[in-house]
Design brief:
Blueprint lengths: L7 H30 L8 H54 L1 H21 L75
Helix pairs in contact: 1-2, 2-3
Length: about 200
């Protein structure tokens, strides 16, 4: 069995070092281009001209090969940087799962199960509905289609369990309706009613 050991910090540092090396090599190639591609003949005879042309052709061929190598080098540095980022992301995700594995797995599973139902109906298959906002009389959200409790309606008016009564009102308002429960299991959400 093979194992891979990757340290994102080291990969990122290596990518930075290789990018710097590529810059140095590019500068050296650019500096040498004029003197290696345009060699002047040593004398005015045909042999000197042929030798100068041969070396100039080799210099131009080197510059073409160097440009191709620089392109491959840039792609390698980009791939190494992307790999370092991918390893860092995977390491962070793994650390999050290790911090609370049961909750993460449960959330991922419920999200996968509920995704289609929420997309089609706006309501999950499994899960509790949200409570109505306090003080608004808003309805509680429905629970999951199959399993889940409906959310409690929002309390309308001042008061509640042990709260101060409404001032000057003859009767209080009615809280929003509780959300619907699941078809197989679940309770209808509570409707909080306050009267003074």
């Amino acid at each position: 069995m093979s194992f891979v050991l990757a340290m994102p910090e080291v990969l990122g540092s290596a990518a930075t070092d290789l990018a710097a090396l590529g810059s140095v090599l590019g500068a050296a190639d650019a500096a040498a281009a004029a003197t290696t591609t345009g060699i002047v003949a040593a004398a005015q005879d045909e042999v000197s001209a042929a030798i100068a042309a041969l070396f100039s052709a080799h210099g131009r061929a080197y510059q073409v090969a160097s440009a191709q190598a620089a392109a491959v080098h840039a792609q390698f540095v980009e791939a190494l940087s992307a790999g370092a980022g991918a390893y860092a992301s995977a390491e962070a995700a793994g650390a999050a799962v290790l911090a609370n594995p049961a909750q993460s797995v449960q959330q991922d599973l419920l999200a996968a199960v509920n995704a289609q139902s929420v997309a089609l109906t706006g309501r999950p298959l499994i899960g509790n509905g949200a409570n109505g906002a306090p003080g608004t009389g808003a309805n509680g959200a429905p629970g999951g289609w199959l399993l889940g409790n409906g959310g409690a309606g929002g309390l309308l008016g001042a008061g509640g369990h042990g709260g101060a009564g409404g001032l000057g009102a003859v009767t209080g308002g009615v809280g929003g309706a509780g959300g619907a429960g699941g078809l197989l299991a679940g309770l209808v959400g509570a409707c909080l009613l306050y009267t003074s």
